Amino acid sequence: MSFFPHTFLHTRLAMSLVLPWEVIERVIDHCSDDVRTLKSFSLTCHQLTPRSVSTLFAHVGLRVESRDQVLKLCDFLQGKPRLRSLVRSITVSPAHFAASLLYLLPNLSDVAIISRESTLRRSGSNQATNEREGYTPVILHSSSLNCYHRLGTHIRHLRLFHLAFPTYLAFSRVLVAFVNIRELICGHIAVRSNVTTAPLDLVNERLRGRLQLRSLTMDSGVDDAIVAFLSELTQTLVGDLVLAMEPAQLESFSRPWDWTRLQSLTLKFTFETEAVQGISAFLKGFHPPNLQEVTGHLCSVEGGLREIKRFQKDRSKLDACMELENTLLRFPQPRLLVSFASHRYCRKQLWTRELEDRFPILHNRNALVVDSGPSIAVGHEKAVTSFVYSADSTCIATGSLDSTIIIWSFEGLVLQEWAAHTGSVLSLAFSPNSRYLASVGSNSLNFVVWDLGRGAHKLATVEGHAESIECCVWSPDGTTIASGSWDATVRLWDAGTFQLRHSLKLHSAERIWDIRFSPDGRWLASRGGQGSYTWNVASGAMRKTLQERAEGRLAAGVFNPESTRLAEVSRSGAVHIWDVQTGRRLFAFKEHTDAVVDATFSPDGRLVLSASKDKTLRLWDVTGGVMILSLKGHTGRVTAACFSPCGEYVASASLDKTVRLWRTGNGSCVATFSEHESGVTHIAFALNGRTLSSGDSDGTVFIRRMSDVLRDE
C-alpha cells in the first residue's frame, strides 16, 4: 500500500527533514509489501536507499522463471555480497531451482516451487485419474535433491503449487530434501502413477522420524491419495491445519484422536449449500483432544453480495447457515472468516451487516470477520449499471452488477449503501420529491420502492408481471410508477398504494428494454426487441414509431422539453425525430458511421445531441434538420452524452476511460478527465448544473464540481 505520492515525498525532503529517522524507518517498514513504494523511497533520496533496499529484499519475494534469470541472479548476488543475507523468499520453477541459490542466500527461509506447465482443474474426486495424462511431470534428479538436503537446512516454509510428480516416491523425496521445514503448503498436486514400492515405505519411515512440520495447508486440487498420504504422515506432528477440499476428501481425517497436537483448524469452502452442509457434517465428528481454534473460511467465487442475498430466499440455505454456526460454537474458539477477491476495504461494514443476519451469535461474539480486500477506492465492486440524480440535485443513486445501490452526496461521500437485489441492479428511478427510489433487479418479477428518508427502508415490493422486469420510471407528477417487462407489457402503478392502474400491452411478444415518460406525463416511450413504441398514457393507445430488431439493449426515445417531439437512436447510425402528436417522422439524421447509443434534447429543445460507437458526438438543429457540429477526440466508443442544464456545454463518456466536456457554441473541448481506470459507461449533470458525475465498468464513480472545472471560464 502506498501512502506518499512521489511528488509529495520529494517536496517534503527538499524543504527539510523534520521527522526523526526512527519514524521514517518505520514508515518504510510499513510499506514492506509494496514494491512500487519501496522503489520510490530508494530513488527519492540516497539516505533512504539502504533501508528501502534492505526492506525490498527482505520482504518482497524474488520470482525466477527461467534458467537465464537464475544465472543472472547468481551473478548479481555474487557482485552484491551485502544483499545476499537480506533475501528471505524466492519463487522458482522446479526446472530452474539451482542449488547455487541456496548457497548464495544463507538466510533464505521461504521457497515456493511452482510449475507453469502443469495446470490442474478440479473435476470431482477422480480428477487425478481423468487428467493425469495431460500433466508435465516434475522430475528432480537425486543429485539436486542431495544438494537441497545439504544446503537447504535453513528452509522453514515450503510451498508447492501446480506440480505433477511421476510417483509418490518422487513427492516424498522432496519432503526428505527439505526435512527442516516447519510449514508446508500444497495446491494442485498430482501423482501420475499409483504404484507403491518398497523404497516409498522406507522414505516414509525416514520422514516420520525426522520431519519437524508444525503447519500444513492443503489447498484445492490436491490428489486424493496425496491428501491421505500427508494426513497419515503429519497427524502426530502439526499444530495448525488448513484444508480447502471437497467434503469427500475430508474422509482422510476420520480419526480425530490421532491428531494429538492439533490446536488450530481452518476449513475453506464456498458459499454453496452442499459445501456448507459438508463442513458442518465433518466438524460434528472431528474433535481432536487439544483442538481449540476452529475457523470456517468462507471464500466466495463470483457471486459476492448476490451470493449472500440468495441465501435469504432459500429456507434450506438459511438452515445450512444456522447449522454451521451451531457446529462452530461447539469449539472453544470458533470463528467465521469471510473473504471475497473483489471486496473493497471501505465496504467492510456493508458486508458485515449483510452477514450478521445469517450468523447472529458469531457476530455478537465478534467471531464473524470480514476480510478486507486490497482496494481502498470508494464505489461498487462491479460495473455501474444505472446512474441517476435526484430531482433536488442533493444526491446521486447508482446501481451495479454487484447487486448494490449507493446513494452519494454531491461531495462524493457515501450516504447510504445496501444490497438491494439477488441479481444485478438494472434500473433506478427517483421520485420527483427525491425521497423515494424505485429499483429493478435482474431476473425478477417485481421491483422495489425504497424510502431514503428512513435509511433505505424497503417500502414496497411491487409484483404483477408474468416475466422479468427490465426497467422502471416515475411519472413527472409523482403519482405513477411505470415498469417494463419481458412479458411485452408496460404496467402503470399507483405510487401511493402500489396497486395496478393500467396495463399497456404490445401486439407482439417481445421484451421491453427501456421506458421514459414525457415531461408533461401524457406520453410514454418504450424500446423493445422489435422496435420503438409511443403510448398515450390516458387512453392506452399505442403507436409503433421505429421498426428495428435489437439484439441487445437500446435506450427508449427521449422527449423534448415541450413533449412535442421524440428523438430515437438506431443501430444503423441514424437519429430519428418524430412528431409525438401525429406520429410523423420529421427528420432522420444519418451522419454517424456506426450505431448511435444515446441522444438527448438541449434544455431549450432546439438541438439534439447524439453519441455513437464511431467515437464521435454530433449536434443537430431540430428546426432545420441539419448537423451543426461534429465533436471528435475520443479514441474509443462513446457510451453516453448529456447537455448541461444551461445548454452551453455537453459532456461525453467513452470506453477510452475518459470524460470530455465540450462547448456547444464552437465545439471546442473544455476539459478531458482521465481519473477512471476502465471504460466510462454513465454520465450526468445535476439538475442545478453544479456537478458532473460519471461511473465506469469497474464500479467507480467520480463527482466533479463545475465551479472547479470552469474556474477560468
Automatic annotation (TrEMBL):
Range of residues in the leader sequence: 1-25
WD repeats: 377-411, 462-503, 559-588, 589-630, 631-672, 673-703
A UniProt-annotated Pfam family: WD40
Matches recorded under InterPro entries: WD40/YVTN_repeat-like_dom_sf, WD40_PAC1, WD40_repeat_CS, WD40_repeat_dom_sf, WD40_rpt, WDR55/POC1
Keywords, alphabetical: Repeat, Signal, WD repeat
Keyword Signal: yes
SUPFAM superfamilies cross-referenced by the UniProt entry: WD40 repeat-like
PROSITE patterns, per the entry: WD_REPEATS_1, WD_REPEATS_2, WD_REPEATS_REGION
PANTHER family: POC1 CENTRIOLAR PROTEIN HOMOLOG, WD REPEAT-CONTAINING PROTEIN 55
Stated name of the protein: WD40-repeat-containing domain protein
Species this protein is from: Dichomitus squalens
